[in-house]
Amino acid sequence: MTLIQGIVFDIQRFAIHDGPGIRTTVFLKGCPLHCLWCHNPESQETRPEIFFSPEKCIGCRYCEAACEHDGHHFEEGVHIYDRDDCIRCGDCTLECYARALEVAGKPMSVEEVIQEVLKDRAFYQNSGGGMTLSGGEPMMQFEFTQALLAAAKQNGMHTAMETSGCSSFDRYQAIIPDVDLFLFDIKETDAELHRQYTGITNHLILANLEKLDQAGAKIVVRCPIIPGLNDRVEHFQAVADIINKMENIQELDILPYHPLGTSKNQRLGKSIPLTYISMPPDGQVQEWLNVIQAHTSVVVRKD
To answer: Distance from CA of residue 105 to its chain's centroid?
Structure first.
């Protein structure tokens, strides 16, 4: 099991929004959805990617010397990064002292990840925390995810997993014994709008949520709310209707839009889809909470 490797793009310690207590969140690459508002666009592809921040470049040209594929060159002192020639080996990032170039995603074994997570074991024990798997979609690296969860349980840790719900239920069934809490996204209740916003419909996702509930899994439903897209009263009422039919929903968390993905998309050389949307004010978020709470007895809160 310890020899199984996955591609990890971040490990965040002292996380307090990814399950109960103080946690360490392990972010895995790969996602079947391409949400317009994605906070972690570096998570969508399964292979490593390169962040490039040209404003940080000091012109040392060490990256140019390190790259064997002509991915970097300079024209009149301007750093040109050619992503078409880049094989994403990350050699250039090792030479970039200014951190204008950074790699997003590296291979890690189960043992390496668990050793990192266990550094804060005392905090988990005192706060009721543990390890959370996130992404991306952890199910995109199922073998690695299953092994990480099993290893965490063997070490006595509470486990949580964030998921889009977009995977075969057989895989969810296999990991239920090793997941103490599923953090399950409902991004849009209208199937066609879900396809427009994420690239796929929500049929499989909602079916998996129902099956997880029937299997007795503990679930926190999470709803990203994006002004102008899914901040409709009809959507809020539909979310409440869904969770009201279930028995194991612990709470409903609202995740207001944050333009965190904008700068990341720029550094990845990707398009920025929602430049016209701003963070909603607190008063608007409270109105969303009030509307949903009026239709369900499940606790609704802002995360």
So the answer is: 13
Which tens digit of pLDDT belongs to each residue from 148-206? 999 999 999 999 999 999 999 999 999 999 999 999 999 999 999 999 999 999 999 99
Residue among 186, 188, 191, 185 at smallest CA distance from 163 = 185
| Pairwise CA distance, residues 117 & 296, whole Å | 36
Q: Encoding tokens for residue 94? A: 């090792």
Which residues 6+ apart lie within 8 Å of 118 measured at CB?
Answer: 155
Contact status, residue 175 vs residue 146, Cβ threshold 8 Å: yes
Structure tokens at 49: 């990617």
Phi, psi of 167 (to 5 degrees): -165, 170
Do 206 and 184 contact (CB within 8 A), yes or no?
Answer: no
pLDDT tens-digit profile of 214-236? 999 999 999 999 999 999 999 99
Handedness of CA 261, 262, 263, 264 (dihedral sign): positive
The radius of gyration computed from the CA coordinates of the chain, to the nearest angstrom, equals: 20
Say whether 17 sits in a helix, a strand or coil: coil
Q: Which residues pair with 103 in a beta bridge?
A: 50
Total number of residues shown for the chain: 303
